[in-house]
Amino acid sequence: MRVFVPCEASTSETRVALIPETVKKLTAMGVTVDIERGAGENSYFLDTDYESAGATIATDRASAMSQADLVARVRKPSHEDIAILKLGALHISFLDPFNEKGLIDAFAHAQATSVSMEMIPRTTLAQKMDALSSQANLAGYFAVVKAAERLNRILPMMMTPAGTIAPSRVFVIGVGVAGLQAIATAKRLGARVEAFDTRPVVEEQVKSLGAKFVKIDLGDTGQTDQGYAKELTPEQIKMQQDGMAKICSQSDIVITTAKLFGRPAPKIVTEEMVAGMKNGSVIVDLAVEGGGNVVGSKLNEEVRVDNGPVIIGIGALEDRVAVHASQMYSANIYSFIEHFWDEESKSIGLDFEDEIMSGSVITHGGSIVHERFKQT
């Protein structure tokens, strides 16, 4: 089997799909790996590192793409790249399938087997392949680091001869993977941390990290079978906003992480809540790529509110820690390949009875095969 890793199309993307350590494991399995020249440079992995691991550096992108049995990348490809894929080739990346019908149709037309990393099931067996979680973990960490850098005060309490400095207050909205890491990081830096989620089941996790769980009675809420928060009614959203307004006004940092799988992010922090926050405080909107949780947040921008907070809306914060983000994503890709690896044929076996494959493959054999996208 021949694997090709191209340079990412987006100039802002710093991650790479496979790191040299993973390449070494794949070549030991009998896989031929081609890396486009310079593909790892933004993650500080040099072409010489890949060559030492057993990869070949490809200088002709189109030729390498058209010969590959498997193409691995981070972000979704261009239509031009899809058109030159080898017949029956396997393509693995984030695809944003709910919002990219044209891209899915292009994969089907090219008769390629496309795997969407967003659709990897959230099960114990698939945990090692769950790229959404691995990347969200790092985004949650860096959200706190970025907020601390922009804040006009320190996070921990300090007792000095000049007096005692009270700890900064951090409020995390949404206690998924990113939220839990944000809580843990803020606590390690010495902040006083509070957190809220519509799922009461996460209260124990919040408390185990030393944070306070904010209780707001919203009536009947819960989570999906994939572990995501269910969409709230307009009445519940208003109750949530009213309950959070006071906490936001007291907080030095607010981090929002609420995403709805396959839908626009809910607007949680209103214009009034933003206006009620301290001058010089910081909001980090981790859902900005999906429309944002915060009214006024803008993708890849920092918005300074007069006499109020700075709203940070940088997309894909995990890009800012590209070495470890690439390491984790590369491990996710490797785990997928290893799980379906057929030692006899030295290739990936397409087993659609397997819940991981049936859950993550969008197109195969010229058709859209995923149940959630067949009628879209």
Describe the structure concisely for a colleague.
The chain has 376 residues and is of the alpha/beta class.
In terms of per-residue confidence, which ranges show pLDDT below 50 for 5 or more consecutive residues? none
Helix content: 25-40%
Number of domains: 2
The CATH homologous superfamily of the largest domain corresponds to: NAD(P)-binding Rossmann-like Domain
Question: Could you please describe the fold and organization of this structure?
Answer:
This protein has 376 residues and is of the alpha/beta class. The chain has two domains: 2-119 and 321-366, Rossmann fold (3-Layer(aba) Sandwich); 139-315, 3-Layer(aba) Sandwich (Rossmann fold), CATH 3.40.50.720. Helix content is 32%, strand content 17%. The chain is built from twelve helices and 19 strands. The strands form four sheets. It has an eight-stranded mixed sheet, with helices on both faces. α1 links the parallel β1 and β2 (32-36). The chain is globular. The model has no long low-confidence stretch (mean pLDDT 94).
Supply database-style keywords.
376 residues; alpha/beta; Rossmann fold; 19 strands; 32% helix; globular
